[in-house]
Amino acid sequence: MAEYDFDLFTIGAGSGGVRASRVAAAHGARVAVAEEYRVGGTCVIRGCVPKKMLVYGSMFAEELGHADNYGWTIEGKSFDWAALRNFVNADVDRLEGLYGKTLASHEVEVFAERATITGPHGVKLASGREVSAKYILVATGGWPAMPDFPGAEHCISSNEVFHLEEQPKCLMVVGGGYIAMEFAGIFNALGSEVTVVNRTDRILRSYDEQIVERMLHIAMGRGIDFKMHSQIQSVEKLDDGCLSVDLGGANPVKVDQVLIATGRKPNSAGLGLENAGIELGEGGEIPVDEYNRTSCESIYAVGDVTDRVQLTPVAIREGHAFADTVFGENPRTIDYTAIPSAVFSQPPLAGVGLTEAQAREQYGNIKVYSSDFRPMKNIFSPHAERGLYKMIVEATSEKVLGVHMIGPESPEILQVAAVAVKAGLTKQAFDDTVALHPSMAEELVLLK
User: What string of DSSP letters covers 80-149?
Assistant: First the structure.
């Protein structure tokens, strides 16, 4: 008989956990996964996938607003939030099914219940069953961080926003990160009155300041109200169902809904890690080494629960590297430099590599090339919004250190630029490339 019930027991069936389990099984391991909610994790179930679909739905509203300039006459147009919400959630169901089929096709046993760690090789399921595993992988992701103030129970997080019964006519979004900016843009485009509350005067801190300033200017032009240096003191639910929000001023703000989007924290509470001698970091993160191993030799962790880089593609790569290292006899680590990222605001912004401020701090002598232009598509729109592309290079070699942009389809364009940054190409390589005209992407090879 085998010494353990499984070679690998994964806690959490999100992007990282599913990839690790599938690859480990392909290497011949006997694998089980426990997931207390739904297979697919944050990204598929309550994050980037359904949110991007809401972005598409809201962008259609913008197109309808100036359809006449395209020659279209659309009579009796109206928006039904429930129809969009239900379509998005139905596709989430479809994707969850595909993830389940992927695990099943690799003969991974799935336990639809919570699991906790009882020791270096022990796991206890919520049903009471205890199993053993040679290795345990924690891939429980992150969870919305909710502030503590009177009336916080009346607010929602990004988990609940996908299931709202009605579209809020007046929405307050609390936070200055990408989740806050994306939902503010979605509901603003759909016609809601949106107010963003942020405790500082900076939003999207990890992105290039000039690009963020452009986004802020455009968002304000579209009607989003920003209240900087503000914090909620309390929230009171009124008899009519609306919320009265005290921001510390003379007059409270009345809204239909308050969305808290102040960040996410590692979802590590109550996992029993202490039973294996694993101590959490100050933010609740699980410390791991370059091979994703914790302080306990038989327990590993990947994804947002480690709080390294909170991005789905990173969790997937970490999960794959773990499986190859432990079960594939191919030790692999992850390179966390030049990871592209985007904010699906309206318009979206994206970046890879060093921002201008970071490059000046690290290199001192740099050059900045840019293109400030009005995308051809925006000519049809009443909004005179301009795109902005920036390239940061080391002054002497002109090696590209970072590329940052805002404008229609920026994330789609940035992905290819990220290859160039990762490869260490120079500005000359862009200059030597013939432009694809007419396109927005051609601005990358025409930067001055």
Answer: -HHHHHHHHHHHHHHHHHHHHHHHHHTT-EEE-S-EEEEETTEEEETTS-EEEEEEEEE---EEE-----
